[in-house]
Amino acid sequence: MKTIKMFYKIIIILSCLLTGFNCLYAKGAGSNSGENILQSPGVRQMGIGGGGTAVSGDIYSIYQNPAGISIISEKQVSSVLENGLSNDYKASIVFGHGVSGQNKYGIAFAVSYFNGGPMEINYIDGTSKNVLSQSDFLAMLGWSMYTASNISMGYNIKYLSSQLIENYNSSAVAFDAGIIAENTTNKRLKLGLAAQNFGTSLKYRSKKETLPALIRGGLSYIIPIDTKSSLLTVIDGFYLIDESNFYKSLGAEYSMSDRFFLRGGLKILPDRRSFTFGMGLKLYEKYNIDLASEPNSINNIYKVSFTMKFGGIEHAGSKVIGQKQELSKLEEEKKYEYENIMEKIAVVDFEGKSVSHTDASIVTDFLRTELVNIGAFNIIEKNNMDKILADALFQQSECSTSDCAVVIGKIVNVKKILIGSLSKTDDAYFLTVNLVEVDTGKVIKSEDSKAYSIEEFKDISKSIAQRISQ
């Protein structure tokens, strides 16, 4: 609740500040200029519909929400090339550097060049001349830092130079600001807000054109599928202030083993809708190749990018040196990210009633294994839990009541804990499993099953795990 209130306060502050910027820099009538060069060249973002306000850890966040660059891993450099209408094209190079320490932050630098293609000018005397219709250059410097454990804020300064028909030159300076807040429980949900292109105007001789100032917002949510795959869902949109138009997008990215990515999105524009598609491939943990396409009735747009990571993750006061240390750090980061996405629970050995402790422990292991395979929870390893309990001088190894579940849950620091009991009559076994909320001691899910041998519980555990995970 505190995080949500803080997020709302920051939204209000940003909105007030940026309304003031708009009054200061965008007075008078005029048209927007520099729209093409100021659009994000990010291939990943294009593949999911163009949205990236709440997508962090990507160096192309500098183009949509600078708050996202605080989670950049390692040093990264990326280049992207995209085609446009007729013979025009745009090329971009981005460099980013993430630094983790007491205050985690990131910096990024980007340059983009837009070539509008040739244009033929016909003179009154019958002669003609081919000239470059338009050329734009954009340079950006971004910085972002975590201001709280779950809130990142970032800022950009950008310089834009534009030339029309080789004779009309102009330049402008603009600023961006953004914020990303994530929920503190499992890090799956992120909310993003950014304001872009608030600055001076482009002036071609006597004609003044304002930059396309906009307010952008979005959310992203990670849906874990199993330990090796996940689905990122994105809802995004921005409001173009001078045009009073709202642009929306939906998108998703399916990640397989953090090496292969499939992307799709829908762009909802004021006058039309279009679908986007994309894919990405990670090679040798250091290289990424991304492709994206937006087929439409006006023109089929394609983008391709190549990204390279190098140098290890720099820490305040020290550097990760050597290939083994570097790979080890990456593995730790992936493990940390997974553990923070999944809800952490503990599974205590079931109590045996008229059965041996060994049989009850075997059935517990069956269910624990299936819960791990499903990947909906981050299960505390049994040996680690036993060590924590031993250090706390807790001697009870079995548990079937809510009271002991609450005690064990608080010791091992989980919010939910799975307990149960295994009993036997003349010819059948009966298993009762309860999922207990540690804070309240309330049983939030309960499952009962019957089997005629211990081995049958191996298959039964699969269906129990599925129902508990729902």
Estimate percent helicity.
10-25%
Strand content of the residues, in percent?
Answer: over 45%
Strand order of the largest sheet: 2-3-4-7-8-9-10-13-14-15-16-17-18-19
> Could you name the CATH topology of the largest domain?
Porin
Number of strands: 27
Structural features, described:
This protein folds into 2 domains: 318 residues, Outer membrane protein transport protein (OMPP1/FadL/TodX) (Porin, Beta Barrel), CATH 2.40.160; 127 residues, TolB, N-terminal domain (Rossmann fold, 3-Layer(aba) Sandwich). It has 8 helices and 27 strands. The N terminus is likely disordered. It is elongated. Helix 5 packs across helix 8. The longest helix is centred in the N-terminal third of the chain and has 24 residues. The chain starts with a helix and ends with a helix. By secondary structure, the chain is an alpha+beta fold.
Write the layout of secondary structure elements.
Blueprint: H1 2-25, E1 31-32, H2 35-38, H3 43-47, E2 75-83, E3 89-100, E4 105-115, E5 118-122, E6 128-132, E7 134-148, E8 151-164, E9 168-182, E10 189-199, E11 202-204, E12 207-210, E13 214-226, E14 229-240, E15 245-256, E16 260-268, E17 273-283, E18 287-294, E19 301-310, E20 314-315, E21 318-319, H4 323-341, E22 343-347, E23 351-353, H5 357-374, E24 377-379, H6 382-391, H7 402-412, E25 416-424, E26 429-437, E27 443-451, H8 456-469
Parallel strand pairs: 1-12, 3-20, 22-24, 22-25, 23-25
Antiparallel strand pairs: 2-3, 2-19, 3-4, 4-7, 5-6, 7-8, 8-9, 9-10, 10-13, 11-12, 13-14, 14-15, 15-16, 16-17, 17-18, 18-19, 20-21, 25-26, 26-27
Helix pairs in contact: 5-8
